[in-house]
């Protein structure tokens, strides 16, 4: 499912247009920035798209992940422990949190300097991010729903 979502997003004309706006500032990381920026806009539009109040959703998600730790390898288990401990999902709810998300990403990049000015970019293109997200997300939901165990095949 994750690959199908990535493919739909990568081939979406609106997403491509947004990435083109970001490329002069952030080069090859435009798509990564768009992906992470959409997480913030999901939170901003949570009342429309979220399955439950955000605090309930995060606690349920953390409990589900934490309860399945024994099925995970040690590296993933470490990520899950840190995610729950530091409430990573909450980071996507504020500009300060987003700065921390991008700050954690920088050491893993070969050209971290391409993230310079990311906070300004998120502000400067706020409306473009939101409009692109609002156009894309219903299609992502439809795609994800097709992977549900109870999904009925369509002709």
How are the SSEs ordered, and which strands pair?
Blueprint: H1 2-11, H2 13-26, H3 30-44, H4 46-49, H5 54-67, H6 74-86, H7 88-91, H8 95-105, H9 118-124, H10 126-145
The biggest sheet, with number of strands, parallel, antiparallel or mixed sense and barrel status, is: none
Helix content: over 70%
Mean pLDDT across every amino acid position: 93
N- and C-termini, Cα separation: 20 Å
- Discrete helix count: 10
**Strand percent estimate:** under 5%
| Secondary-structure element pattern, one letter each | HHHHHHHHHH
The 3D shape can be described as: globular
Low-pLDDT segments, ≥5 res: none
Helix-strand makeup class = mainly alpha
State the assembly state of the protein chains. single chain
Number of strands: 0
What does this protein structure show overall?
With 155 residues, this protein is mainly alpha-helical. The protein has a domain at 2-50 and 92-145. The protein is built from ten helices and no strands. It has helices at 2-11, 13-26, 30-44, 46-49, 54-67, 74-86, 88-91, 95-105, 118-124, 126-145. It is globular and about 45 Å long. The model has no long low-confidence stretch (mean pLDDT 93).
Give the gist of this structure.
This protein has 155 residues and is mainly α. Helix content is 72%, strand content 0%. It is globular, with a radius of gyration of 17 Å.
